[in-house]
Write a structure and sequence with these properties.
By secondary structure, this protein is of the alpha+beta class. The chain contains 10 helices and 13 strands. Among the domains are: about 120 residues, Band 7 domain (Tetrahydropterin Synthase, Chain A); about 60 residues; about 45 residues, no CATH class. Helix 5 crosses helix 7.
Length: about 375
């Protein structure tokens, strides 16, 4: 049923949604203009005499009322707004900053206050020397055409290819919106300036082997530069992803690396031999020294013991010479005779030799040599 057609019970159907309400207002405007055109074409004498001008005041009044209704509806509709989680709302009153609103439902004065939403939780990213074509688990990167970003000159006049990434978040939404016109471009320019300066002050080998230190220094200096610009962002990560020489010098660079690796290998082998031989030699020398000290102490103690023994014997000899001499003779013979194979007994006049037959040894040897 058209909206301007009367239902059978004599009442118009009321709009149920804002869209229906707007459609009804538009239809009323069309009906008002259509009615005036029909009056001018037909020249109906029942409603208007031939010399009477058309009633334009009523049509203009309706248009003004409709426009006011639309403005009121739009004002009421735009007075309430919602801030999503991870966002903040910056409210401007007559173009000047007024307040910052947190996530939730809020109210603002229509036609006087404007709203700008800023995402403060998402991590923004700027890539240098490459671009990510297909992000995901197996990301696809493209490095063609970005040599102007990645080529740098080191402190020892060598060319190096550096690719890095900068990740940052919004820390001050007001400064982010109004202090810098293009914050991503400012981050790119400042990052490129800082990285080129740091790499340009270092040698080629130092840049290749100390990328983490360089990344930390670049992150700190980049944050200082952005704070000076009042960009309203904080650096989350600055990481040097790839550092390589240009393709034209890679063969020579690989040869230098191979020579350097060979040198390091030889040095490591020499250190391994040194660590194996030198400690062993030092241990052997220390062992010999300790044995010499032990031998010296042993000889000294033995000499001291023999001296003390001799002194004691002299003291005993002075008290009883004959007894001491006899005892010394017997002790000496007790030590000597067990090792003598044949013993001869001589008389004082040395006329005959009498062999000494040791029966104890023969008795010990016979049982072992006889058999039953």
């Amino acid at each position: 049923m058209p909206m301007n057609e009367q239902p059978p019970w004599g009442k118009k159907k009321k709009p149920s949604t804002p869209e229906d309400f707007l459609a009804a207002l538009i239809q009323k405007i069309r009906d008002s203009f259509t009615g005036q055109d029909q009056q001018r074409k037909s020249g109906d004498s029942n409603n208007q005499s031939p010399g009477e001008p058309p009633n334009l005041t009523a049509g203009i009044g309706k248009i003004i009322l409709i426009v006011l209704a639309l403005l009121i509806f739009q004002g009421v509709y735009s007075s309430f707004y919602t801030i999503e989680p991870g966002e903040v709302g910056i409210v401007l009153r007559f173009g000047q900053y007024n307040r910052t609103t947190q996530p939730g439902l809020h109210f603002k004065v229509p036609f006087i206050e404007d709203l700008n939403k800023v995402d403060v939780e998402s991590v923004r990213k700027e890539e240098f020397g490459f671009r990510t074509r297909m992000p995901g688990k197996n990301s696809v990167f493209d490095r063609r055409g970005f040599d102007m970003e990645s080529l740098m000159l080191t402190g020892d006049k060598n060319v190096i290819n550096v690719a890095w990434i900068v990740q940052y978040k919004v820390s001050d939404p007001v400064n982010f919106l109004f202090k810098v016109r293009n914050v991503p471009q400012a981050v790119r320019d400042a990052s490129e300036m800082v990285t080129r300066r740091i790499v340009g002050n270092m040698d080629f080998d130092y840049v290749l082997s100390n990328r983490e230190i360089l990344a930390g220094d670049a992150k700190q200096e980049l944050q200082e530069q952005l704070n000076i610009l009042e960009a309203g962002v904080s650096i989350v990560t600055l990481q040097l992803l790839d550092i390589n020489p240009p393709d034209s010098v890679k063969p020579a660079f690989n040869e230098v690396n191979e020579a350097d690796q060979d040198m390091k290998r030889l040095v490591n082998e020499a250190e391994e031999t040194y660590n194996r031989v030198i400690p062993k030699a030092r241990g052997s020398a220390k062992q010999t020294i300790e044995e010499a000290h032990g031998y010296a102490i042993q000889r000294t103690n033995r000499a001291k013991g023999e001296t003390n023994r001799f002194t004691a014997i002299v003291a005993e000899y002075q008290q009883a010479p004959e007894v001491t001499r006899q005892r010394m003779y017997l002790e000496a013979m007790q030590d000597i005779l067990p090792g003598v194979a044949q013993i001869y007994v001589m008389d004082k006049k040395q006329q005959n030799l009498l062999p000494f037959l040791d029966l104890s040894k023969r008795q010990q040897a016979e049982p072992s040599g006889t058999t039953n």
